[in-house]
Design goal:
Elements lengths: L6 E6 L4 E7 L1 E6 L2 E6 L5 E13 L6 E13 L2 E5 L3 E3 L5 H12 L6 H21 L1
Parallel strand pairs: 1-7
Antiparallel strand pairs: 1-2, 3-4, 3-5, 5-6, 6-7, 6-8
Helix pairs in contact: 1-2
Length: about 130
């Protein structure tokens, strides 16, 4: 059986390196939609949005993390994601995510900035609730 060609994926927050692993594919939430990476992709840098990062294949199988913005770089079969926050489903407290959703829904909108802040807060809470299921 031929060895599967893998990428190296690293997820780093300001506090810690959340993970470093090999994967056959990486799908991340960019600021404007999902982007998938496989081995030998052309180099690129993109802005990461709020959503679920999925790594598939490799020794660990599928793994999913909540990511909260940042940047991703793909270079020489290494995917490096620098994000404000990253959490696995085990780390998400469903009660806190539900409370965050209620708080986001109650945010007052007075201008474009407050509308955008509300949308991001709702996206964070919705994504965490989705992953925590």
């Amino acid at each position: 059986m031929a060895k599967q060609a893998l990428l190296r994926c690293s997820v780093i927050t300001p506090e810690r390196q959340v993970l470093e692993r090999e994967a056959a594919s990486v799908v991340l939430p960019a600021h404007d939609g999902l982007i998938g990476y496989m081995r030998d992709r052309a180099p690129m840098v993109c802005e990461v949005g709020i959503g679920i990062l999925t790594m598939s294949g490799g020794p660990q199988g599928e793994q999913r993390l909540f990511v909260d913005g940042g940047f991703a770089q793909v270079l020489n079969n290494d995917v490096t994601i620098l994000t404000n926050r990253a959490m696995s489903a085990d780390e998400i407290d469903r009660e806190n995510a539900t409370a965050a959703m209620r708080e986001a829904e109650g945010m007052r909108i007075s201008d474009d900035a407050s509308f955008e802040a509300r949308q991001k807060a709702m996206a964070r809470a919705q994504t965490q609730l989705k992953l925590a299921k």
